[in-house]
Design a protein that fits this description.
The chain is of the alpha/beta class. Helices cover 41% and strands 15% of the residues. It contains ten helices and five strands; from the N terminus they run E-E-E-H-H-E-H-E-H-H-H-H-H-H-H. Strands 3-2-1-4-5 form a five-stranded mixed sheet, with helices on both faces. Helix 3 links the parallel strand 4 and strand 5.
Length: 237
């Protein structure tokens, strides 16, 4: 795996607050490597050892009867398999504090160390920065990015993790990034300018945010150091 291994994660629960004794009923993870889905995933249903709130069941459709023969979180095939799968990767979730609090409550109940906050990226926070004042639920973001919701009847953790992976890639500029990489893969050494040229000029160029002093120093740097090799000269008015 590359340096940027990331795990997109979703959970379903018996209720809203682990401090009130609510538990996980489902956990799912999708692996990304360098922002590319690898096809590897992790998915478990979990017996919560308690009743499921009616409102929670209405959202995810998972009943206690369905979970009757499923392993508890403490089972090696759940907790150890989950920790092995995520390794030391960055964890991505929508409203990440919710999933983190539930997972950490389960881990701490077993005397295991919780997953530190610094490991997590919250896609809800990313979306709120990019689209302030707009609906930024997973559904709303999928519709905004034209990601198909055809598989999403109930809030299943694996379906939601896959949808969230697509949303995360969009929030990171996925389509444009992919375009850059496809061009980069075809160009030869010394052809960096083609990436810029492929996008073309903006119809109305953005105003420069550089100060007059910075512009003077930049011009001097081009003239004295880069000389004719400066790609800026190819795009100068």
């Amino acid at each position: 795996m590359g340096m940027a291994r990331e795990i997109v994660l979703d959970t379903e629960t018996t209720g809203l607050d682990p401090r009130s004794g609510h538990r996980l009923v489902e956990i799912a993870c999708v692996e990304l490597d360098e922002l590319i889905p690898t096809g590897r995933s992790f998915h478990r249903y979990i017996h919560p050892e308690r009743e499921i709130d009616v409102d929670a069941q209405r959202v995810h459709g998972i009943s206690l009867a369905f979970l009757a023969d499923k392993p508890k979180f403490a089972h090696v095939d759940v907790v150890d398999a989950f920790l092995d799968f995520i390794g030391d990767a960055t964890l991505i979730a929508h409203n990440a504090a919710f999933d983190r609090n539930f997972i950490n409550a389960e881990l701490e109940r077993l005397g295991r160390r919780g997953l530190h906050e610094v490991r997590w990226i919250d896609t809800l926070g990313m979306a709120q920065k990019r689209y302030p004042g707009m609906y930024n639920s997973l559904d709303a973001l999928c519709k905004r990015f034209k990601i198909s919701l055809s598989e999403r009847d109930k809030h299943g953790a694996l379906v939601d993790a896959k949808l969230l992976a697509n949303v995360y890639l969009e929030l990171k500029g996925g389509r444009e990034r992919g375009f850059d990489l496809s061009i980069a893969g075809r160009r030869k050494p010394g052809e960096a300018a083609i990436v810029i040229a492929a996008y073309g000029r903006r119809p109305r160029p953005l105003a420069s945010r550089a100060t007059e002093d910075e512009l003077i120093r930049h011009a001097a740097f081009i003239q004295e150091t880069l000389k004719d090799a400066a790609i800026w000269l190819q795009f100068a008015e």
